[in-house]
Amino acid sequence: MKLSKVHHIAIIVSDYERSKEFYTRILGLEILRETYRRNRHSYKLDLALNGEYIIELFSFPDYVPRPSYPEALGLRHLAFEVENIEQTVEELKQHISVEAIRIDSLTGKKFVFFTDPDGMPIELYER
């Protein structure tokens, strides 16, 4: 077996409109398709980065809460690469709280964390 790439990441959100705004307006992801699934009373939002499909946002009326702190079992965090971490952090700070920029002791690269509206950790890693 040979995998060719990550196709997408699926995220269940508690407040669809709030998360849609966060991922599109604040993070700048592009909407590829938005579908309301009447039989499930839920939305499915397909999002792209630079034209490439990467995230599905789902809303479900009866979602089950899951721990989201970094050492919880399962997905640890979502990470995006950026060219200039200081500039990106300053832009984000106009909308949300962002941790202090740190240096990766293994690579010497700058990185920072913040959370999505449901508390899921998101990392920015400088190229």
UniProtKB/TrEMBL annotation:
It comes from the Bacteria. Coiled coil: none annotated. Keywords: Metal-binding. Pfam families: Glyoxalase. InterPro entries: Fosfomycin_Res_Enzymes, Glyas_Bleomycin-R_OHBP_Dase, Glyas_Fos-R_dOase_dom, Glyoxalase_1_CS, VOC_core, YwkD-like_dom. Residues 5-127 form the VOC domain. SUPFAM superfamilies: Glyoxalase/Bleomycin resistance protein/Dihydroxybiphenyl dioxygenase (SSF54593). Gene3D superfamilies: 2,3-Dihydroxybiphenyl 1,2-Dioxygenase, domain 1 (3.10.180.10). PANTHER family: FOSFOMYCIN RESISTANCE PROTEIN FOSX, LYASE, PUTATIVE-RELATED-RELATED. NCBIfam families: PRK11478.1 (NF008551). This is VOC family protein. It comes from Sphingobacterium thermophilum.
